[in-house]
Amino acid sequence: MNPSAESSQPAITYLNHETSVMSWLLTRDHKRIGVMFLVGVIFSLLLGGIFAMVLRLELLTPGPTLISPMTYNRMFTLHGVIMVWLFMIPAIPSAFGNFVLPIMLGAKDVAFPRLNLASFYIYLAGALLTVFGMLWSGADTGWTFYTPYSTVSPSALTPILLGVFIIGFSTIITGLNFITTVHTMRAPGMHWTRIPLFVWAIYGTSVIQVVATPVLGMVLLLVSMERLLGAGIFDPSRGGDPVLFQHMFWFYSHPAVYIMVLPAMGVITEVVCAFSRKNIFGYRMIAASTFGIAFVGFFSWGHHMFVSGQSTFTSGIFGVLSMLVAIFTAIKIFNWVATMYGGSIDLRVPLLYVLGFIFLLMFGGMTGVAVATTSLDVHWHDTYFVVAHFHYIMVGAVLMAFLAALHYWWPKMFGRVYPERWSFLAAMTIIFGFIVTFLPQFLLGNLGMPRRYYQYPQEMQWLHVLSTAGASLLAFGFGLIAVYLLWSLRYGPVSAPNPWGSRGYEWFSGSPPAPHNFTRAPSFEREVHDYTVPEAPRVY
Amino acid sequence: MSTETSPWEDHFSGPENQSHAAQLGMWIFLGSEVLLFTNLFVGYGVYRYYYPEVFAEASRHLKADWALVQTLLLVTSSLMVVLAVHYIRQGRQFLTALVLLLAILMGVGFLGIKGWEYWEHWKEGALPGEYYHFEEIPEQGGSLFYTLYFLLTGLHAIHMLVALGLLGWLAFGAVAGKYTAGYHIPVEVGGLYWHLVDVFWLFIYPLLYLVE
Ligand code: HEM
Ligand SMILES: [Cu+2]
Questions:
Q1: Distance A304 CA to ligand 2 centre (A)
Q2: In chain A, N or C: fewer CB atoms in 10 Å?
């Protein structure tokens, strides 16, 4: 990294033009809101991570190790709830999307800044309610809240259901805001074919958020009704149908996995271009496949229900539809690789995470195709195989992209650089630690280890020990990142306005940007990431 | 609230842009509201298929005549809201407030009828879930019908309360001179929300009261 003072920073930035606590809490600046979301999701990641570590430690021995079985049930529920709803879903769109999307479009802000701030507080309220619920009495249903157990579970599930319901509103509002922003706030010259692919990814994600989240909200409300009124909708003893819950739940929650992974793919596209110093290969294909994924994502929920008693024919259809997702994903992977091919590769930390992403996504995606095959899934359903599959994608891939984004945009957000060697070490630790954690879980699942079990037979111990060892490495890697990033906030060398020499449009603004993003309106005369023309004059 | 600040926000490129954004945002929100109700509609469809006779019988037991009155009230109120938009575009603030008030009165009338209906159900024990003890219709299916009935109409009523608050606020703003022929985005967008409430009812009404 070569921090240089070649061009001076704007003196007044979004960070220093007002500094009181109130100016942050009441801000309408999308950048500050993005930073607040970033703090929120990182805190959630930490909380969820602590639970995960306790779970892994418990599984170190076949019998009881640390905690009681009941505590174990509560911990995996909270781990799942926090990771999925408080971290994964808002992580990239609400934090980085908020920060860079308007800048990439050349806008001063999102379309509805006040709503944007509200979205943060709604998230906060939902998160606090969820945490309150778990401190009060916990929940033991797993993050999927399956009925009929969730309607009778003695733990106080209702505050958690409502907490997640409230967070859903935050998601809807953010999505609505982004869609409107893309449609109405583009600067002159920013036509649809110039929109950076990260923005396309966030746009596609927002569509899913707006369409799917209300369905989830209602189904959570129905479970609460079930608990409060004995409503009977999912209760067979009152003539209701518990499988209906699964349909409604997965109608949201399958697309929800694309709410997590599409923004991640958007990040990857930006980072690949920046460090291969080439424009993306197949802009249109990448944008189109985003919508392909978003679309078929709505028609594959039934692959979670292969063993629920639905007809073999239905299962077959859902299986095939699910596999279509893999095709659209493959298009993206080929395009990233094609972009790197022949590019002049600059292997910085963000790109390292991209390589981790591509590798883990392929592994996760291909095991996805495997579990989408009915005959195989009957064997693997609800085993550690599924746990490994979704962790490969959700943790392996999405978290990689999150870390890539964090490292790529860190200088943009805070105007400082972090120590390169330490960040390399952390990245290697995390990728390696991840593989050691989750690869054994495929084997465990194949051996028949069911998910969400507190005990297991002696023969499986070595695989569990391996997995716990990997988890410890992961935790160490995160600790490292936390230390050097916090260090760099204060002591890190001041970054150049564009330390990577990237041609992404967001670098048209200063690093950190001025309060309204630009001191002079940017002009978009070249394609995004066009390295063949001389750099356009800077505008911050 | 001070009215000194200009209603135009400076991160938009101009009034037209701001109006476009507001309308689009509202339409997206309306779309997601429609999807919020879909679970209940789907649930209704599924259980109607499971318990066709019971559902038909329960449906006949509701007060369809009064529901027709409600429908007329709501449709007329929607017309009033259309007029409000029409008048504010011409800058006639007093007339705007007047028709908005009329719309509010009709909405309140609607909710009054609904409340009375609820009261009748309460007396006969046609209540959701485990509180169901209505003798005339068998519990299997019957309690589900009333659960869905209360959820659908209840959720609709909650939306109406919100929408009524919104209309009240708009009427107040119109009298206070906040909206003019040049600036009437809130009236248009708020009006859209009222139409949504109306349209929901146009689905709920036939589904619960009319389908045999
Ligand atoms: C792209 C990102 C993906 C993510 C984030 C993801 C995430 C998940 C998650 C969280 C679960 C577990 C749900 C639970 O708790 O029960 C799961 C299960 C499953 N996934 Fe994926 N998945 C992805 C891609 C795919 C693909 C591409 C396919 C098919 C080609 C697929 C097929 C399945 C199947 C069949 C199951 C159910 C397995 C079972 O319960 O037996 N997934 N996935
Ligand atoms: Cu799925």
A1: 6
A2: N
